[in-house]
Design goal:
Helix content is 36%, strand content 13%. A hairpin with a 5-residue loop joins strand 2 and strand 3.
């Protein structure tokens, strides 16, 4: 058994205890009905074996928190398998809601019960083997730093447990809808216990306690609905989310255009003055009513996955997104254009190749044609779309803080809107991250290609999973707001609408949660837990399914709800992360010596800007230091001494103000590497800049444009060498493409802490060293044992090491 398997041996999945044994922690609905089944008999016997070893371990003072979770999940999933076996018709219906499974839904429904039982046995086997090694002294394991759900403090750039140690919170976003927060069969250490406003089965478009329907036409609150806000338990740390999907009929009667410009989860026109009044009132008053409550410690989420995709497409037509804009939006755009062009309509007409007599007559067709990308008209609309969204959330946040001045906020930003090339969606990730007091997102990764179009993807050539969106967006947001708590309120690491994989590996789960946490994540709620304690699907998923969110109906099939090994692995990796919380904080609180310059101006104008940016980011990602970003605002507002150089790569379009910020950095004495004369050459409208950068007090290096990515990488590393640590890592994975992402930090006692994640699809032969040191002594912190400085790390493997030089 390799090291990764060893640590996941702890992870099992839920079964129920021995057949006839009574456990007061479980109600009668946990009974295993299929005790005569051979797989169930085997699982029950293994639960007995593990529980016997747990008792032995406890007599030796060994922490068995991990094993308690293995047993809990094992018992739960044996019960789930029984329910699924008895209700194959219902399971087949749910499986068939996910299009890639539809054709085989009956076959999968028949196979899933034994699949769950088999995976449960595998995890129990691993758990028994792991604990045996701990008892035998082969592994020295840290006790779990258990989350004290009732005593969390929001500290400086970290969450702090009741014992004073840093802590990383975990749970599920959307969890057993219909079950109360007080149900400890759902809210516990095994699944997480973050409280929220979504425990009830709400009507269509309500979904969460704080929604558009709280306020009546006479501007009084619906007291029954308000009671669902004030009645949320205040016992545990939690969050509240503003659910924007619907709008009351009385608003629509007064404002017939109120649904113009709607999107998937924002069901109204954000420019409408009545909507701004309604939601301003709701934010202000619910803020006052929930002020100081623990359920707001993880912030008020101002929106669920906002976007306003404005390019005409089949998808937007099906969902009704941005099929027209309101008079308010059009007039707002006209006012924005008037300011942008300093009231000069001739300048606009020249740019747009139009003949408007005045700004009050400017018209634009929305949805906008994709062919307009790269034109001044497209740029102006895309930029305005972003700025009106910023204005909307600034308004809601201001009103909230009138009722709750200290309210923390974030937005569940879909980070692919940053890393993808599309830019007609209205989301400026930098501005929204600056606006709120916490970082918010729902970043995703995938260990398999998208289910549709199900074509070969670039990452598959080199990597075990697709990490681009997660890593690039996290490094960007952490650069924008390095001191803010980071909450992923719907982590799509386990499944998403466009990918599912029943046989997902536990090693993938471990790797991706280490990666996300090392890159800044403080709390996450995985998508999604939809089982009731009796094994049936949650109330919302019973009967015929017809949701406004087209992806929701298919979310159960092939998800963690049918994967005992993944449910357990998620909790087990969070136990590991919390056991090493101080080390993780030390590894991620480092300078980012090299910064990549990001310009939304180029991202809006170019068809493939973010793809190009990822190519250089990828080359730098495996070089032993965290990568940072700068923008105009970061250069102007943050201490420029926190980095050593800025690299500009294939960024042709920048505003005058962006160019001025780079010049100010050179004036300050900074080092700027520009990949070619083409970069920084044009303004937002494709017009050549009249001014050029000059070296001033700094160092300006302009390359020819013919240099390879490797040569640019090497130059960037050379120019930031003084800001890097002395640890070295040589990697041989059978290719010329690195796959191990690693970091190192020097400790006060002179030792080094090193983390290594092998994201590559091949195993890697590694050799650690320290500059100017002939010999080093390496300790594996997962096992507490000395190891060689030369070792193999499997694909998706995780290593946490300590290096001493004497």
């Amino acid at each position: 058994m390799d090291q990764t398997q060893l640590r996941f041996a702890i992870g099992g999945l839920a079964l129920f205890g021995l057949l006839s044994s009574y456990n007061p922690c479980f109600s009668d609905d946990t009974a295993v009905a299929s005790a005569s089944h051979s797989l169930v008999k085997e699982a029950l016997a293994k639960i007995g074996t593990l529980e016997t070893k747990m008792a032995e371990a406890e007599t030796k003072g060994i922490d068995v928190t991990r094993e308690k979770t293995v047993v809990w999940f094992a018992k739960e999933f044996l019960k789930f398998a029984d329910w699924d076996e008895k209700n194959q018709g219902a399971v087949a219906y749910l499986v068939g809601q996910y299009a890639p499974y539809k054709e085989d839904s009956d076959k999968l429904a028949a196979e899933i019960p034994d699949f769950q039982r088999t995976k449960t046995i595998e995890i129990l086997d691993d758990g028994i083997a792991e604990l045996s090694r701990v008892i035998g002294g082969e592994v020295v394991r840290r006790p779990v730093n258990k989350v004290d759900w009732q005593s969390i403090e929001v500290g400086d750039n970290m969450l702090v447990n009741g014992n004073g140690r840093p802590v990383f919170l975990y749970d599920y976003f959307s969890k057993s809808v219909g079950r109360p927060l007080t149900d400890d069969r759902v809210y516990n250490d095994h699944l997480g216990a973050i409280f929220h406003g979504g425990e009830n089965l709400y009507p269509v478009e309500h979904d969460r306690a704080i929604n558009s329907f709280l306020l009546k036409e006479d501007r009084t609150f619906d007291q029954d609905l308000l009671n669902e806000v004030t009645g949320i338990s205040d016992a545990n740390v939690g969050f509240l989310i503003y659910w924007n999907q619907g709008i009351p009929e009385w608003v629509e009667k007064l404002e017939p255009e109120v649904r113009f410009g709607r999107s998937t989860f924002t069901g109204f026109d954000i420019d409408n003055p009545l909507v701004r009044e309604v939601w301003g009132t709701i934010a202000r008053e619910t803020g006052a009513l929930t002020r100081g409550k623990k359920v707001t410690q993880l912030g008020y989420i101002l929106a669920n996955e906002p976007h306003w995709h404005s390019i005409a497409s089949g998808w937007t037509r099906r969902t009704g997104e941005m099929q027209q804009i309101s008079t308010y939006t059009l007039n707002g755009f006209r006012a924005w254009l008037h300011k942008k062009y300093d009231g000069d309509i001739e300048r606009l007409n020249k740019n747009w190749e139009s003949q408007f007599p005045g700004f009050e007559t400017v018209a634009i067709e929305i949805p906008i044609a994709a062919q307009t990308r790269g034109t001044p008209m497209f740029y102006d609309w895309a930029r305005y779309s972003m700025e009106r969204a910023i204005d909307w959330y600034a308004h809601i946040q201001r009103e909230l803080r009138k009722g709750n001045p200290g309210a923390d906020t974030h937005i569940k930003n879909s980070t692919h809107l940053f890393t993808d090339n599309d830019r007609a969606h209205g989301i400026d990730l930098e501005a929204l991250t600056e606006l709120t007091s916490m970082i918010g997102d729902d970043a995703k990764t995938r260990p398999t290609r998208r289910s549709y179009p199900n074509k070969l993807e670039a990452w598959e050539e080199h990597y075990a999973y697709c990490w681009e969106e997660l890593s690039m967006s996290y490094d960007f947001m952490e650069s924008v707001a390095p001191e803010k708590i980071h909450v992923n309120s719907e982590s799509h690491f386990l499944s998403a609408s466009r990918w599912r994989k029943l046989d997902t590996s536990v090693e993938y789960v471990e790797s991706v949660y280490w990666l996300a946490t090392l890159q800044g994540m403080d709390a996450n709620m995985a998508w999604f837990w939809a089982r009731d304690p009796d094994g049936s699907p949650e109330d919302r998923l019973e009967g015929e399914l017809n949701f406004a969110d087209l992806a929701l109906a298919g979310s159960f099939a092939g998800s963690v709800n049918q994967q005992p090994h993944i449910a357990n692995a998620y909790t087990q990796v969070m136990y590991d992360l919390n056991s090493f919380s101080e080390e993780i904080i030390a590894l991620r609180q480092q300078r980012r010596p090299l910064r990549l310059f990001h310009s939304e101006t180029s991202a809006i104008n170019k068809q493939n800007h973010m793809t190009q940016q990822f190519s250089i980011y990828e080359k730098l990602f495996f070089e032993g230091a965290p990568i940072g970003f700068v923008t105009e605002n970061i250069i102007r507002n943050q201490d420029n001494q926190t980095w050593d150089a800025i690299l500009v790569y294939r960024t042709e379009f920048v505003t005058d103000s962006e160019l001025d910020s780079l010049q100010s950095y050179l004036d300050y004495g900074g080092t700027l590497i520009v990949d070619s004369e083409n970069s920084l050459s044009q303004n937002e409208y494709g017009q050549r800049h009249r001014k050029r950068l000059n070296q001033s007090n700094g160092e300006l290096i302009i390359l020819t444009g013919d240099e390879s990515l490797e040569k640019i990488r090497d130059l960037a590393i050379e120019k930031t060498a003084s800001g890097r640590h002395d640890v070295t890592l040589a990697e041989d994975n059978g290719s010329d493409h690195k796959g191990c992402h690693w970091r190192a930090v020097k400790r006060a006692d002179g030792s080094y802490l090193v983390s290594i994640l092998n994201l590559g699809k091949n195993s890697a032969e590694l050799r650690l060293g320290v500059k100017s040191q002939n010999s080093i002594f390496v300790t594996d912190l997962f096992t507490g044992k000395s190891v060689s400085s030369e070792f193999n790390l499997d694909s998706k493997g995780v290593a946490l090491l300590e290096i001493h030089t004497q």
